[in-house]
Amino acid sequence: MKYIQVLVCLCAFALTGCGGDEPRSSGDPASRGISDPTTAYRVASLGFPDAPVDETTLRRHLETLASDDFEGRAPATSGGERTRDYLINEAKRIGLKPGVGEGYEQTVPLVEVTLDPKQSEFTVDGEPLKYGDEAIYWTKRVVDAVAFDDSDMVFVGYGVVAPEYGWNDYEGLDVTGKTVVMLVNDPGFATGDAALFNGRAMTYYGRWTYKYEEAARQGAAAAIIVHQTEPAAYGWSVISGWMGPQLDLERPDGGAGRTVLEGWITEEKARSLFSSAGLDFDKQAQAALDRSFNPTPMGALKASGKITNNIRRNQSANIAAVLPGAKRPDEFILYMAHWDHLGRNFGQPGGDSIANGAVDNATGTAGVLTIAEAFANNGVAPDRSILFLFVTAEESGLLGSAYFGEAPIVPLAKIVGGVNIDAILPTPPAKDITVIGFGASELETILERAALRRGLYLRPDAQPEKGYFYRSDHISLAKKGVPMLYADSGIDLMEGGEEAGLAFSDDYTENRYHKPADEYKVEWNVEGLTQTLGVLYEVGADMAYSNDWPNWFEGNEFRALRDAQRAAVAGG
């Protein structure tokens, strides 16, 4: 279908000779302050000024950010400080204005909490679950010690309250002080029924982070998710890897609004507990797939827990810079990328100890800087302001973007739409653009318009059931209502097709992802990267030089939030 659309569009271009959409701007280009005839043509044909994404500029940023001098860009380290200084200096050089009052930094308070396994336990009927082997647990309450005793256990299916899907796993149930046990992902994944949630494609309700938040809203004492590899999209080894220090935001309430204990248990242990409660795990999981599901008390089982923490506080910062709008400066287009990576202490003694994060996420950080320079140099001030946001602590759980979402430096209702750039592979040119979370918002319509101008087609991500849309920084804004786009370079390469693109991706994932080998090389072919950044520039320009207010598509889980957000502005 997409291939046909591309061919039709290309034929139309050839017949009309215009090379773009119908103009969306009005009036003489000179009235917009355009004197260069070439620029005037570009504005007239596109509705906004075109601008090249400069490869030399991009490479300079990549080489710098991924160098050993930046020591892997870990937050609250000297390498992190150098990264922040570099971003601020580049923003000033480009001519961007401070985005946080008179400065460029939004301080992000962080707290590192380390559970002491020798003084912590989670028990069911007095039997401790083996930490690491049978269960992983923690508390989001930033206190030295916390405990709960003899909590009734109840199976709440998927632990979802989703009005737009007519679904409420807690309906008619008071779980105050109880321990809720639930399944990962959402019912649509298990059934594959496209009419149930979003079919196999995960919705936000399938994310484990949502389930803990909902359990807290319901008043539960503890929230436990049953791990199953396929719906979780990773094995137990990933979960057990969460032992040790955990970085989080220092929230105003110290996490008091969260459940006392959050955690995972293995499927094997869950089956054993269900059996002890006189329940059949498989029958209960099957019942949870229906709207008529009723939460099931787990017999006489009682859960207790106690956690002892070691706490260390620190801080980092998001970097925010603005290109002011000439007509509606209080409306914003957002470009976002996380500047942090994993830092030092990798490898064996005598080996490479720095995880440079060249792809993850020097590409995104350098990409946003390069796009910012393209906007600053295109000769025409945008109608709306453009906010360039570089967030911290993504690798620790999307913390910088989460802080921005909770303490925005501009009203969220005034953000027209956003583009998140995260870990774009340096591939040769492709025929496609990959859309993570395909089918989410009208930003995809804008993206497709920009892609088609370059003869590219949109490709949905291949594994929507794994919920990658909910695992990068844009989700911190999306769940606040702001339409966000998460796009990546394609895999259908001009030379070698999909086979070559998949081989490139697999090689990176296996050999370089989150390893010291993720380094910048001057031999990189960045044509595909610059191609993608050029498309993403056009997506932002399409909004920055227009009156459009793209929204989530009807039926999306964030649509109601945005509608209410915009209605409040209109009625205010």
General description of the model:
β17, α13 (443-453) and β18 form a beta-alpha-beta unit. The protein has helices at residues 2-16, 37-46, 55-65, 78-94, 187-191, 208-217, 229-232, 236-240, 267-276, 281-287, 358-376, 399-406, 443-453, 474-478, 497-511, 527-544, 559-571; strands at residues 97-98, 105-115, 121-124, 127-128, 135-138, 145-155, 161-162, 167-168, 179-183, 222-227, 246-249, 261-266, 296-323, 328-338, 384-391, 415-420, 432-435, 457-460, 484-489. By secondary structure, the protein is an alpha/beta fold. The protein is built from 17 helices and 19 strands. The chain is 32% helix and 22% strand. The chain starts with a helix and ends with a helix. Residues 1-42 have low confidence and may be disordered. The chain has a 17-stranded mixed β-sheet that branches. A two-stranded antiparallel ribbon has the order 7-8.
Give the topology, please.
Blueprint lengths: L1 H15 L20 H10 L8 H11 L12 H17 L2 E2 L6 E11 L5 E4 L2 E2 L6 E4 L6 E11 L5 E2 L4 E2 L10 E5 L3 H5 L16 H10 L4 E6 L1 H4 L3 H5 L5 E4 L11 E6 H10 L4 H7 L8 E28 L4 E11 L19 H19 L7 E8 L7 H8 L8 E6 L11 E4 L7 H11 L3 E4 L13 H5 L5 E6 L7 H15 L15 H18 L14 H13 L1
